[in-house]
Amino acid sequence: MSVKQNFDKIQSEIASICARTGRDPASVNVVAVTKYVSNERAKEAIDAGVVHLGENRAEGLAMKLEDIQEQVSWHFIGSLQSKKVKKVVPHISYLHSLDRMSLAKELDKRLDSELACFVQVNVSKEESKAGLDIEEVDEFIQELAAYPSLKIIGLMTMAPYVNDPEETRPIFKALKKLQLDIQAKNYSHAPCTELSMGMSNDYQVAIEEGATFIRIGTSLVGNEKKEVN
């Protein structure tokens, strides 16, 4: 299927889930994860109407930026090394992987304007995944008030890759509860209204549990390197 057909299918699913759960479909943003596809395939996504593109490596982002001039919002969705911050932050609108104070400090030093950030939470507590434990998030967000260039718009998590997406529901539900708890604190630097969760394998469940940004690779643009995303 073409990217346009894939995008239309995903938008149809979003509309259906939102109708069922009483949400506005416009509240769900599709981020096309282009890390495993060519510049040409990424451009197909833009032509299909996708306005959010995500990369997980500084080098991958640089390669896409060399060739893609269209006006889109770039998301950095992978772990970002402090030494690569200066190469990345001038080009992105969203960072999905804020998980340590050293990164916050470097970001704030390099930014000329406010950056929308998601705090990454390792809800499943998998050793292979980055992110804070749920119990650490509130204190971490409070400390981020020291860095005025960072606007904490929400939380992000990655669920384990499982055959039955229903198994991911408790993880997404836990992140939603945490997001509401943080939002209720009314931190001026951390409105925390957004949830970045759900990928190709489980985005339908994530939307049902409140995702506002879903990060879709294989199901949208395909996977020319045949890796899981």
Mind explaining what this structure looks like?
This protein is of the alpha/beta class. It has helices at residues 3-21, 39-47, 58-67, 85-88, 101-110, 137-143, 169-183, 203-208, 218-221; strands spanning 29-33, 52-55, 73-76, 94-98, 115-120, 150-156, 194-196, 213-216. An 8-stranded parallel beta sheet has the order 7-6-5-4-3-2-1-8. Strand 1 (29-33), helix 2 and strand 2 (52-55) form a beta-alpha-beta unit. The longest helix is centred in the N-terminal third of the chain and has 19 residues, at 3-21. The radius of gyration is 17 Å and the shape is globular. The modification N6-(pyridoxal phosphate)lysine is found at residue 35.
Rounded mean pLDDT is 95
Indicate the CATH topology.
TIM Barrel
Instruction: Give the N-terminus to C-terminus distance in angstroms.
Output: 18 Å
* Residue fraction in strands: 15-25%
Number of domains: 1
* Spatial extent as radius of gyration: 17 Å
CATH architecture: Alpha-Beta Barrel
Low-pLDDT windows of residues: none
Derived from helix and strand composition plus strand pairing, the structural class reads alpha/beta
Class in CATH?
Answer: Alpha Beta
Binned, the helix content reads: 25-40%
Total number of helical segments? 9
Spatial order of the strands forming the largest sheet: 7-6-5-4-3-2-1-8
Biggest sheet character: 8 strands, parallel
H/E element sequence:
HEHEHEHEHEHEHEHEH
In one word, what is the shape? globular
CATH superfamily: Alanine racemase
Q: How many β-strand runs?
A: 8
InterPro entries: Ala_racemase_N, PLP-binding_barrel, PyrdxlP_homeostasis
Protein name: Pyridoxal phosphate homeostasis protein
Function: Pyridoxal 5'-phosphate (PLP)-binding protein, which is involved in PLP homeostasis.
Organism: Alkalihalophilus marmarensis DSM 21297
